Each structure stands twice: as structure tokens, then as C-alpha cells.
Fold these 2 entries.
Entry 1:
Amino acid sequence: MSDEHLERRLAAILAADVAGSCRLIGIDEEGTLARLKALRRTLFDPKIADHHGRVVKNTGDGALVEFGSVVDAVRCAVEIQRSVAEQNVTLPQDSRIEFRIGIHVGDIIFDNNDIFGDGVNIAARLEGIAEPGGVSISDDAYRQVRGKVEIACDDIGPQCLKNIAEPMRAWRVRLTGQIPSMQSGSAVSQPRALPLPDKPSLAVLPFQNMSGDPEQEYFADGVVEDIITALSRFKSLFVIARNSSFTYRGKAVDVKQVGRELGVRYVLERSVRKSGKRVRIVGQLIDARTGGHLWAD
């Protein structure tokens, strides 16, 4: 970036990504890409234009969008998710294209038609914790839309977002099929349990880094990604994509809840410890329906 042409401004940022895109492309590469292009042309881009947004860039299976109003951004996100859900009704669960959307309002840097800064990073991290078909918004965004939009939001509390220094309070926009329950004094939506696929289904959760060295988080993430990629090659297995399983990073995990939320029968949990050239990995395979351990090593 050139320091001579930096421009700062306040904007609402919408970050969107396709949940489980690697799995969908692995099943039907050409068909998935054709459907995604059609969704952008007939639904995504028109909705953004209707709400006065600007697509800053498309990111393969996602997009970064700038709005002058956070109210417009949230209304646009809700309309997109509801329209996509309607189109998915007639499709099998394992072939649906579902977006995750995160929204934040804050100061950004504009340079050469691109945008940068914490405002952009936070929106992207909020997208990462959204459910497939869901919308997560920051507390700053929520305060701006409260009482101005015809939707309900549920407080999901402080969230530890990757590469964001301090935990940030976040809200989940309540969409069709999400029913709130009370937890720790706040109304928090619980998604309906997803149906199990017609073949063995598995989620590989982020490995717990036992080395005490934050730098090893990248190593642990790489191991998980390699395992997910290798297992996804088996057509007889339904393997949850990295973006979905990594929403549980750093959280106390209820394996039964993970199974319900991701629509899987089995969950693989592991810890990794790296010291010098030696690596120790301990794993356990759990039946998400019963919580029982099936295998450990």
C-alpha cells in the first residue's frame, strides 16, 4: 500500500464464505462452481446492489462487501440467507450450498479500490464463527441496528477471534429454524439438529496444542487440514470441512452438541505436542450420538 494515497473511513463490512466448499468441490467440482456462479449472478450480487453495497472482491468461494450503512448490510445478509435456504429445500443435505456471513462496522483503510484494517479482519473472523446459513455480527454492529431492523439477535457472548487481541462480544441473527434458549442469563439460539448423511460422517476438531508454544498452533492446524483432506478422498465418508469444524477452536466441546450442529455421527478429537523434531499426537474417536469412546491412541 502506498502511504501517499491512504484514505480512512467508517463502513459496514460484510464477509461471506461458502461452508464446506472443499467438500462440495470434491464431490462435484464443475457442478458446484457452476451453481456458485449462478447464485452470485441471480441472487448474491442483485441483493447487494438492492441494499447499496459494493463488492470489494470475490474470494473464490466467498466475497468481501462494503456498505455505507450497517442496517443495509444486515438486511442484505438476512435476505441472502433466507433466499438461499428456500432454494436448498429441495436439495439433499450434503449437496447444498450454504453461506456463512459475518458483519462488523468500524474504521477501514481504502486504497486502490481495496479495503484493509481491523474492521475487515473482524468481519472475516465473525464469518468464521457463523453457522452454515447463519449471520454473526459484532456488538458494534448490533448497537447500530437494534430497534431499526425487523429481526431478532441472540447474544453469544465474548468470542475469541483468531488474530484479534481481545475477546469480542458477538451476536447471532436469528433466522428461520433457530430457536433461542437461555444460557448464562442470555438468550442464545440453538440450531436445529442436522440430519445424518446416508454414509459414515465425521468431524475432525481442531487439535489441542499441548506444547505451550503459540507458534505451534500453525503446525497443529496444518495437521488437522492434512487429515481432513486425506479423509475427504474417501467417497464412502462424509467429512465436515475445516471451516465448520474450526468454529469449535478454544471452546469446551460437548461432543453430542457438535454432532447435532454439524450433522455427523463421529467426532475425532486430538492433542498434539511438538518438541524439537519429536511430535506426539494423541487422538480419540467418539460416537457423537452416545458420547462413547470408540477408539483412542
Note: Residues 177-192 have pLDDT under 50 and may be disordered.
Entry 2:
Amino acid sequence: TYTVCISQHSASLIPIHRINRMNWNYLVCFSILLGFNLSMLDAFIDGRHSTILTERRSSYLGRHKQHMFTGIVEEMGEVVSLEVDKEMTLWDGTAGKGTELTVKATKALEDAYLGCSISVNGVCLTATSLTATTFTVGLAPETMARTYFADLKDGEPLNLERASEVGGRNSGHFVQGHVDGTGTIIYKQPVGDSLVIRVKTSPDILAGIVPKGFIAVDGTSLTVVDVNRKESWFSFMLVEYTQKKIIIPDKPIGGKVNLEVDVLGKYSVNAIATTILPRIEALEARIVELEKMIANK
């Protein structure tokens, strides 16, 4: 058996009385597919309920603005300062220490407000302070552990993107801004006016990367070219236009990049590991048991 938890607003969007008839794959993907690609659900539910879902989803999104990132970098900002162990007042009024990053920007500040989300090198961060030319964000311990932000230097360029409304135009892919870890550039080679780059990363991250799939590298939506699982690297190609708009081409061999695996890949890997493989292993064990019973007769 398996258990899923559906929030109150999700329950208002789907026909709950039919949940025992839905394909389990639909349940695995429901929470992410609902936000950005309703058409993919049609394979799992009939047309009548698909219409109901479309109407209720449109009504919900009309009342509640939902945001994501697309991996289309809007501008290159600049590190103003990175303050580690800064004295600050915590939520309960007590004194504590934290890390703050201040970034110089232009486009990212348009329509910005305190509490808004801005992608900085692929990391979804909350604006805690705004000026005419800068914004400041707090960096949690988890962010520092998953990224290379501890190595940022004053004046270093950064990929920036404002959050986009779910359901709007998306020229990249669904990027959460939840970085899985880092990779290291191990190869750079021009091919015509394009640039091929290989990035070495951990097997855990590589498990969710497939050729011609999506990958967010420093917040840039890119198409995976090749994957070498034996040597633990993947590659992508930057066209001439993109090279001028992002920070990746200027990084040297050995340079770090933030990586976010396509969310569908993460859910697929998790579904296989937690649901399919255990069932296959149980089935194989049962077959072995039956073979022994037959052999002993």
C-alpha cells in the first residue's frame, strides 16, 4: 500500500470520490503537474473530470497567484557583499547570527517587494531589504550547504530571475529554485559559435539527469546533451546568444555551478525507489519461493 496527503486546496480541485480509481502515477505527479501542465493529466482521468479539474484550477489560480521560475535568466547582477555570522534579531526577539547576501541589480528590482522571491544563480531566495539599486536576501544553513555561495566574492556576477506566475508563458522549464547540489566544470570546448561544457557531479544528482532532459545550471534552463554515468558527468551546449546573457561561459575549468535536477526526474527516481523496486523485489522473492516449492515436490 501507499499513502498520499492531499491539502485542503488540492482537495477542492480534484474529484476525491474517484481517487481509488486513479493510476498511482497520477498521484505521484499530481502536486507538480497541477501547477503547470494540466494536459498531461488527461492520460489518467476521463474527459468529464478533466473539464472539472480545468475549471476549478482556473478558478483557484485566479484567486491565488502562484509563482515559479523558468530558467530564463533576466540579467546578470553583481555581489555587493556577503556577510557571514552577522548579528541579527530572530523571530522571537532574541539575538542570533545569520548570513546575508546583498546584490546589485536592475531588472530584478522591477516590481520587487519585501518578501518576494528572486532566483540568484538558481537559488530561490526571499528579499528582506530593498534599495533603488540593490536587494538583500538571507542565506539559510541548508542553502550554504547545497550551494557554493560560501565562496562568493564582492563584484562577482550572478544570474538573476524574477519569479513568474504559474500558467504564464514559459520559454524554459519548471524551475523551483531548490538546488540539489553543485557540480564542477571539467571540460569546455567551442563548436562553431556554440560552447560545449561538461559538469562532473555526484551519482545521486546524476541519477535524475537524462539525455535531452532539462537541467538548471546556475539557474539557467538547459538541455542535457550527454550523460556519462561511469565517469559521473553530463554535458550541455550553449548557443551564441545564451553565452552573452549568463555567467557560465566565464567560469574556468574547476569552477563550481549550482544544479537543480528537473523536478519530474526527481519524482520519478523517488517513485521507482520507493514503490516499483520494492514490489519487484517482493515479486522476485515470491518467484524464488515458488520455484523451491515446485522443486521439492
Note: The helical segments are 8-11, 24-36, 47-63, 141-146, 203-206, 240-243, 263-296.
